Amino acid sequence: MVDIDSFRQIALSFPDVVELPDFEKTSFRTKGKIFATLTVDKHLACLKLSPLDQSVFCAYDKSIIYPVPNKWGIQGWTLVELKKIRKTMLKDAISVAYNEAARIKSR
């Protein structure tokens, strides 16, 4: 299980990350790109992974980490149940999402 403060600490540990509101969620961005969002009241995170990385992480256990069930999920947006995921796996997934966003140049 990962609590909200731990999620924030992990997401903000990467260079040049800012935490900003995004509608009813909190977003974590680098170079103007969102790589993670957090829905505090549901203990739910959403990470932007490549479709390949999404398939790798989701293969572990789809009750813990799974694609958003709509067109956003096809694009790699992946939900994470913070009450169920191990901290080490979450760190890996956030790192992958951050690195994907950091390598894309903002316009």
Question: How would you portray this structure in words?
Answer:
The protein is an alpha+beta fold. It has one domain (4-103): Aspartate Aminotransferase, domain 1, CATH 3.90.1150. 35% of the residues lie in helices and 30% in strands. It has four helices and six strands. It has a six-stranded antiparallel sheet with strand order 1-2-3-4-6-5. The longest helix is centred in the last third of the chain and has 17 residues, at 87-103. The N and C termini lie far apart (37 Å). The mean pLDDT is 94.
Helix content percent band: 25-40%
Strand content: 25-35%
Give the SSE order as H and E letters: HEEEEHEHEH
Number of helical segments?
4
- Major sheet details: 6 strands, antiparallel
Could you list the spans in which at least 5 consecutive residues all have pLDDT below 50? none
Q: Roughly how many Å apart are the termini?
A: 37 Å
Shape descriptor reads: globular
- Total domain count: 1
Report the CATH C-level class.
Alpha Beta
CATH topology: Aspartate Aminotransferase, domain 1
What's the architecture, going by CATH? Alpha-Beta Complex
The overall strand count is 6
Strands in their spatial order, largest beta sheet:
1-2-3-4-6-5
Mean of all residue-level pLDDT scores: 94
What integer value in Å does the Rg equal?
12 Å
Instruction: Name the assembly state.
Output: single chain
